[in-house]
Specification:
By secondary structure, this protein is an alpha/beta fold. About 40% of the residues lie in helices and about 15% in strands. It has one domain (about 10-330): Aldolase class I (TIM Barrel), CATH 3.20.20.
Length: about 350
């Protein structure tokens, strides 16, 4: 089944984008109030699985997608893609930095006021906590907590916090970040919120940090992440797919969400990885994917999100899931205002 090419203006009008800025200037308290009165899920994962959209990359100076260096720096396009995915029922929620979360809350408020219905009913909002390890900097592995803290998550009525550490055995900054992550997990435990932890083993290659996806590296770092903080009972792990994923899944009983990585423009490899990952262990419980969903090529981001859901929740084969995703997206109106 063919799908319509994505056009940001068909989802997010320039007027609505301008109205979001107007709210920031004139009535920021209205955005906070919308956050506070937002109805939250009573249970994080009612069916034991989650499909979450990640939108925290620009906060770490990661802006490239599909060969375009500033693809994620165009906030109109980026936010339109996020809202398109949230407009369907294919994802359980959004993980993002404060600015993204607040823009989505503002859009939700404006759409509700216009009688169009909101976007966040029954959705999870997870706040990204550490973004200080800016891409390409000398301090990239010293990933300081520059976004949400635990109290900020509570103040905005959010559902959890996401944090990351990258382990390079040759860089002492990794150890600092791991200690900060343990402290953040303890803070989340104090306020009763789950921690979504992304542990990665990295190696410097050609002046960049490459993620090691071999099963030994991933299993070892999985053990480190599972042991952080004074309790692991609120910990979900976010791990990339790699070979022998069953060995990785066997390293913990914490629930695992499969992450996506850089966008390739071809959705099938991602869908095949997710299907294989879901079959690797009973504790692999879904996905937390960003760029691959938001930038699937010229097509509709919602179609790929729906395909992922079909795999995670129904065990659909990748090719069938992709066609089902396109069919589902075709039933969801593009415009947020009807």
């Amino acid at each position: 089944m063919s799908e319509q090419s994505f056009e940001p203006g068909s989802v997010l009008s320039r007027r609505l984008l301008s109205d979001i800025t107007d709210l920031r200037v004139s009535s920021p308290g209205d955005i906070r109030e919308n956050a506070r009165r937002r109805g939250r899920r009573q249970v994080l994962a009612p069916e034991g699985r989650l499909v979450l959209l990640a939108a925290d990359h620009p906060g770490r100076m990661v802006t490239a997608a599909l060969g375009q260096p500033l693809a994620m720096a165009d906030r109109h396009s980026y936010l339109a893609r996020i809202l398109r995915v949230l407009s369907g029922d294919s994802v359980d929620g959004l993980m993002g930095t404060p600015d993204i979360i607040e823009e989505v809350l503002a859009a939700d408020l404006l759409l509700t006021d216009q009688g169009a219905g909101g976007l966040l009913a029954g959705k999870l909002l997870i706040g990204c906590m550490n973004r200080g390890g800016l891409l390409g900097t000398s301090f990239e592995l010293r990933d300081t907590f520059t976004a949400y803290d635990a109290q900020g998550l509570v103040a905005m009525n959010l559902d959890g916090g996401k944090l990351m550490f990258r382990l390079d055995p040759d860089d002492p900054a990794s150890g600092e970040t791991i200690a900060w992550c343990a402290a953040a997990i303890n803070d989340l435990l104090d306020v009763g919120l789950p921690a979504f932890v992304e542990p990665l083993v990295v190696q410097r290659q050609d002046e960049r940090l490459a993620v090691l996806r071999d099963p030994a590296s991933m299993a070892r770092v999985c053990g480190v992440a599972s042991a952080l903080g004074r309790s692991s009972l609120g910990t979900w792990l976010k791990l990339p797919y790699g070979t022998d994923y069953a060995q990785v899944a066997a390293a913990t009983t914490c629930p695992i969400l499969i992450l996506g990585g850089e966008a390739s423009g071809d959705p099938l490899p991602l869908l095949r990885d997710i299907a294989a990952g879901m079959a690797a262990g009973a504790n692999v419980r879904g996905t937390l994917v960003g760029r691959n969903v938001l930038f699937p090529g010229p097509g509709d981001p919602l179609a790929l999100a729906a395909a992922i859901r079909a795999i995670v929740f129904a065990g659909a084969p990748p090719e069938a899931a992709l066609e089902a995703g396109k069919a589902h997206a075709a039933t969801v109106p593009w415009s947020l205002v009807q």
